[in-house]
Specification:
It is a single chain. By secondary structure, the protein is of the alpha+beta class. The chain folds into 2 domains: 177 residues, Rossmann fold (3-Layer(aba) Sandwich); 80 residues, Lipocalin (Beta Barrel). Helices cover 21% and strands 38% of the residues. It is built from 5 helices and 18 strands. The protein has an 8-stranded antiparallel barrel. Strands 5-4-3-6-7-9-8 form a 7-stranded mixed sheet, with helices on one face. Strands 1-2 form a two-stranded antiparallel ribbon. Helix 2 packs across helix 3.
């Protein structure tokens, strides 16, 4: 994947390296002092990350901490992404990325920006790759969830997202990779219509899982096995003494049922 740049010194740098080969962090400073320690992501890991993210012709791929540009370039050259943007604070890495994209012959389909990832607008991204410390991933988490559309695929190398559980993780020649999918926002009150039946839902989400209550004919019952994966939602409730599974697709303030049960829901 990429090379990383640290703004860590003394004991902090030593602790980061001991804690798991941490490669780098970012300062919010416009002119950061960089202590450079470059480690490239192996090409077989790059390939598998982009496979897990299902990068394809309709995607705009963002690589946060793009280093020598290998992931952004591979997204376009090998996976036919519409465009790829690499973000890095180190001007030397940006220079390398631009040199490598010329060698790869990908032209203007790949762009490298010397920017702070926390100040980068991510809204156009449909797939994202990262090789950052878990602590940086967690700091970045609110921005990812706020700016990226539900269904956006995020792949990380070596480090996870804390309490945000991955959709999938595996090892590639000893290197761990994780897949996350930005979940639709389902918190709040919903009204379900299922034929003549009306069910009130009150949901509380925790990243991709959610809990809550369902109220039918004045009687409340807990929601079970609530899960959101991108725009897909599923949960079970007891209806007339029988466990019923609901599956659907979230589109903003509406849900359309996709499973056996014929239902729709709107934000109340």
């Amino acid at each position: 994947m990429q090379f990383r740049t640290h703004k860590l010194t003394g004991l902090a740098a030593a602790a980061a390296l001991v804690a798991g080969g941490a490669l780098y962090s970012w300062s919010v400073s416009a002119q950061p002092k960089l202590d450079i320690h470059f480690v490239p992501t192996p090409h077989e890991v790059v390939k598998r990350m982009l496979e897990l993210a299902e990068v394809g012709a309709n995607d705009v791929h963002y690589d946060l901490g793009s280093g020598d540009g290998r992931i952004a370039i591979a997204a376009v050259k090998d996976f036919k992404a519409k465009r790829a943007i690499g973000i890095d604070l180190d001007p030397q890495r940006i220079k390398e990325g631009n040199e490598n994209k010329v060698k790869a012959g990908v032209g203007d389909l790949v762009t490298f920006r010397e920017q702070n990832i926390f100040e980068t607008d991510l809204k156009e991204a449909t797939t994202v790759s990262m090789y950052l410390l878990t602590s940086i991933n967690i700091r970045l988490r609110p921005k990812l969830l706020a700016e990226l559309r539900p269904g956006t695929r995020i792949v990380t190398h070596a480090f996870n997202m804390g309490e945000w559980q991955p959709e999938h993780n595996e090892r590639v020649n000893g290197y761990e990779v994780f897949l996350f999918i930005v979940p639709a926002k389902v918190d709040g009150k919903w009204e379900v219509t299922e034929g003549e039946r009306k069910i009130a839902l009150d949901l509380k989400s925790d990243f991709t899982a959610f809990t809550g209550t369902a109220t039918l004919n004045g009687k409340s019952t807990p929601i079970k096995d609530g899960k959101v994966s991108g725009t897909k939602i599923e949960f079970s409730i007891d209806v007339d003494g029988k466990a019923t599974k609901y599956e659907g697709k979230v589109d903003g303030d509406a849900i359309t049922g996709t499973g056996a049960a014929k239902w729709t829901a709107k934000k109340a």
